[in-house]
C-alpha cells in the first residue's frame, strides 16, 4: 500500500508533482531522485508485463513546453539506460504523439513516457505512461509507485542506446495525409487552400500544428498566436476551459476574419474551437459538433460523455441526430473505458468525450487527442464548403441553457469519500419523494435530478470529485432565475451537513 509520501504523486492514471521552484509554500517534490525512483519502478513494472530482456525494449521519451521538462527527461533516460533499456529522445512532443510511437510501424516502441502536467501551473509537471494497449490505468500507476516506494529497480546492464528522433514530424504528417485523403480536393496536396485558420497554442506544445499540418495543406494561418513554446505560459493558461484563453482565440478569429479558430491545451490531448462568427465551440457545443459528424457516418451510434452534459445535448444527440447518449462518470479514462466496454458488448460507440475537451475516437485507438479531434473538424469543414455550408450549421437545433453555474464545496473531514457518499445517498432518497424533483434514470455518478418549468426549469448534478475532498455542484436552467431556484432548494437540504462547506453556495444566493 502506498504511504503518504508516495501517494501524493498519484493523480488518477498519471503521476503529478511540483517540479519547479517559484510558488510560495510549494517545495519541489519531483526531484531528480524522485523521477529516477518512479522511472525505476516503471521499468520493473514494464519488464514484468512484457517478459522481454531489457536490451530488447525501446521506450520513447518526450515532454511538453514546461521548463522542468528537459531536466526530468534527462533523469528518465538515465534511469532506463542504466537498466539496459533503449530510448528514443523525442524532445518537445504532444502527449497523443507519444502513444502513436507505440503503434507506429517503423518504431513500434514498447512504451512511451511523456513529461507533462496538462494545463496545470508552470511549476507543476508529471509523468504519463503508455504501452501499445494505451495509457496506463490507475491500478498500474499504484503498482509502479509501490515499486518506487520499495526501492525496486532493474539490475544495471550496459549497452543501451539513446537515439534522437523527430517523431513530431512523423505524427504531423499522419494528420496532414488524413486531411488530403478524406477531402480529396481538386488540389489534392492543398485541400485547405482558401481557408483562414487561426491557432492558439498557449505557448504549449501545439504550435507544430500550424507549421507542420496547416501550412503544408494550404491554409492561411494569419493571426495564429502564442505558438512558441514557453513553459512559463506568459499569455494565458493553455486550457480550452479557461475563460481568458477562450476569449483570446475568439478575439483572434474576429480580428482576422477567420473561418475557424483552434485552441489546444499544453500537451495537445485537449482542444476547443471557435466558429467563423467568433462563437465558442466548446463543452456541450464541441460534443454536439463531433457527435453530428460521427453519427452522420454511423447512424444510431452511441456517444459516451461525462456526467455534466446539458439536457439540451441529450435531446440533440437522440432526437436530432438519431443517436444514443450514454452519460458516465467524470474522468477521461472513465469515459474511454466505458466506451470500450460498450463496444465489446456489441454496442457501437465511436466517441468517448468529456466536457473538458478530452475526446477519444474509436478509429484513433480511443486516444484522447486534441489535434486528431480538430483535424476531424477541418475535414468536415472542407467537405461542407462544397455544399455551400459551414461547420457551425451542424449545430442547428442544439438547445443551450439560459443559465449555468458550478459550485465547488470542500469536505472538511478526513474520510471525505464516505462522508460525500452519505450526502449523495441521502439527497438521492430525498429526490425520490420531494414534490417536483425528478431523479435522472440514467445517472451513473453522484445524484442528478431535474425540475419542471416554474420550479427551476433545469437540473443539477452533485458528485464527489475524482481525487480531491470536495463536491462539485453543477446547475443549469432554461429559464432566467432558474439556477437560483434550484440552488436554494439544494442549500436548504445541504446546510445541515457540518463537514460540507456550503459557503460558496450560500454566498452566491445572498448576492442574488
Please tag this protein with its features.
512 residues, alpha/beta, five-stranded mixed beta sheet, 19% strand
How large, in whole angstroms, is the Cα Rg?
Answer: 23 Å
Determine the mean pLDDT: 96
Number of helices: 15
Q: Main beta sheet, described?
A: 8 strands, mixed
Structural class, judged by helices and strands? alpha/beta
Euclidean distance between termini CA atoms: 47 Å
| Annotation, overall tally of beta strands | 22
Which helices and strands appear, and what pairs or packs with what?
Elements (H helix, E strand, L loop, with lengths): L3 H4 L2 E2 L2 E5 L13 H19 L7 E6 L5 H14 L3 E7 L2 H9 L7 E5 L8 E8 L2 E2 L2 H12 L12 E3 L2 H17 L13 E4 L7 H7 L28 H14 L3 E5 L6 E4 L5 E2 L2 H14 L4 E4 L5 H10 L3 E4 L4 H13 L6 E3 L5 E3 L5 E2 L1 H16 L17 E8 L5 H18 L3 E3 L7 E5 L6 E5 L7 E8 L4 H13 L8 H9 L1
Parallel strand pairs: 3-4, 3-5, 4-8, 9-10, 13-14, 13-15
Antiparallel strand pairs: 1-2, 2-6, 5-6, 6-7, 10-11, 11-12, 15-16, 16-17, 18-22, 19-20, 20-21, 21-22
What does this structure look like?
Helix 2 (32-50) crosses helix 5. This protein is globular. Strands 1, 2, 3, 4, 5, 6, 7 and 8 form an eight-stranded mixed β-sheet that branches. Strands 14-13-15-16-17 form a five-stranded mixed β-sheet. It has helices at 4-7, 32-50, 69-82, 95-103, 138-149, 167-183, 208-214, 243-256, 284-297, 311-320, 332-344, 370-385, 416-433, 482-494, 503-511, and strands at 10-11, 14-18, 58-63, 86-92, 111-115, 124-131, 134-135, 162-164, 197-200, 260-264, 271-274, 280-281, 302-305, 324-327, 351-353, 359-361, 367-368, 403-410, 437-439, 447-451, 458-462, 470-477. The protein has 512 residues and is α/β, with parallel strands linked by helices. The model has no long low-confidence stretch (mean pLDDT 96). It contains 15 helices and 22 strands. The chain starts with a helix and ends with a helix. Helices cover 37% and strands 19% of the residues. Strand 21 and strand 22 form a beta hairpin.
Amino acid at each position: 500500500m502506498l504511504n503518504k509520501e508516495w501517494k501524493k504523486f498519484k493523480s488518477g492514471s498519471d503521476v503529478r508533482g511540483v517540479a519547479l521552484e517559484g510558488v510560495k509554500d510549494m517545495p519541489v517534490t519531483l526531484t531528480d531522485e524522485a523521477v529516477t525512483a518512479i522511472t525505476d519502478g516503471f521499468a520493473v513494472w514494464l519488464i514484468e508485463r512484457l517478459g522481454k530482456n531489457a536490451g530488447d525494449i525501446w521506450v520513447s521519451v518526450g515532454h511538453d513546453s514546461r521548463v522542468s521538462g528537459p531536466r526530468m527527461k534527462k533523469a528518465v533516460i538515465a534511469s532506463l539506460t542504466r537498466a539496459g533499456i533503449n530510448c528514443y529522445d523525442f524532445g518537445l512532443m504532444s502527449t497523443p504523439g507519444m502513444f502513436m510511437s507505440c503503434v507506429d510501424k517503423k518504431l513500434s516502441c514498447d512504451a512511451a513516457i511523456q513529461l507533462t502536467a496538462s494545463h496545470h501551473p508552470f511549476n507543476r509537471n508529471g509523468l504519463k505512461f503508455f504501452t501499445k494497449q494505451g495509457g496506463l490505468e490507475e491500478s498500474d500507476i499504484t503498482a509502479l509507485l509501490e515499486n518506487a516506494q520499495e526501492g525496486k529497480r532493474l539490475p544495471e546492464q550496459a549497452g543501451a542506446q539513446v537515439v534522437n528522433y523527430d517523431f513530431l514530424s512523423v505524427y504531423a504528417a499522419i494528420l496532414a495525409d488524413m486531411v488530403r485523403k478524406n477531402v480529396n480536393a481538386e488540389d489534392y496536396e492543398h485541400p485547405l487552400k482558401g481557408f483562414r485558420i487561426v491557432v492558439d497554442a498557449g505557448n504549449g506544445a501545439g504550435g507544430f500544428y500550424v507549421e507542420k499540418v496547416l501550412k503544408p495543406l494550404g491554409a492561411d494561418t494569419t493571426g495564429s498566436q502564442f505558438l512558441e513554446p514557453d513553459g512559463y505560459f506568459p499569455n494565458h493558461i493553455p486550457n480550452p476551459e479557461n475563460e481568458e484563453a477562450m476569449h483570446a482565440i475568439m478575439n483572434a478569429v474576429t480580428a482576422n476574419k477567420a473561418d475557424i479558430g483552434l485552441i489546444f491545451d499544453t500537451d495537445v490531448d485537449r482542444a476547443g474551437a471557435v466558429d467563423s462568427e467568433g462563437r465558442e465551440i466548446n463543452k456541450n457545443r464541441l460534443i454536439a459538433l463531433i457527435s453530428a459528424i460521427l453519427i452522420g457516418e454511423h447512424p444510431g451510434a452511441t456517444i459516451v460523455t461525462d456526467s455534466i452534459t446539458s439536457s439540451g445535448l441529450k435531446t440533440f444527440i437522440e432526437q436530432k441526430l438519431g443517436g444514443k447518449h450514454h452519460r458516465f462518470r467524470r474522468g477521461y479514462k472513465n469515459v474511454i473505458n466505458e466506451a470500450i466496454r460498450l463496444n465489446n458488448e456489441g454496442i457501437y460507440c465511436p466517441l468517448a468525450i468529456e466536457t473538458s475537451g478530452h475526446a477519444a475516437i474509436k478509429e484513433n485507438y480511443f486516444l484522447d487527442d486534441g489535434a486528431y479531434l480538430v483535424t476531424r473538424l477541418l475535414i468536415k469543414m472542407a467537405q461542407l464548403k462544397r455544399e455551400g455550408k459551414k461547420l457551425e450549421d451542424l449545430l442547428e437545433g442544439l438547445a443551450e441553457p439560459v443559465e449555468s453555474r458550478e459550485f465547488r464545496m470542500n469536505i472538511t473531514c478526513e474520510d471525505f469519500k464516505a462522508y460525500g457518499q452519505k450526502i449523495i445517498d441521502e439527497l438521492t432518497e430525498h429526490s425520490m419523494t420531494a414534490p417536483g424533483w425528478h431523479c435522472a434514470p440514467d445517472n451513473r455518478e453522484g445524484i442528478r435530478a431535474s425540475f419542471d418549468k416554474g420550479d427551476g426549469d433545469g437540473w443539477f448534478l452533485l458528485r464527489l470529485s475524482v481525487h480531491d475532498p470536495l463536491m462539485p455542484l453543477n446547475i443549469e436552467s432554461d429559464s432566467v432565475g432558474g439556477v437560483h431556484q434550484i440552488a436554494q432548494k439544494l442549500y436548504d437540504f445541504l446546510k445541515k451537513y457540518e463537514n460540507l462547506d456550503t459557503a460558496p453556495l450560500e454566498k452566491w444566493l445572498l448576492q442574488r
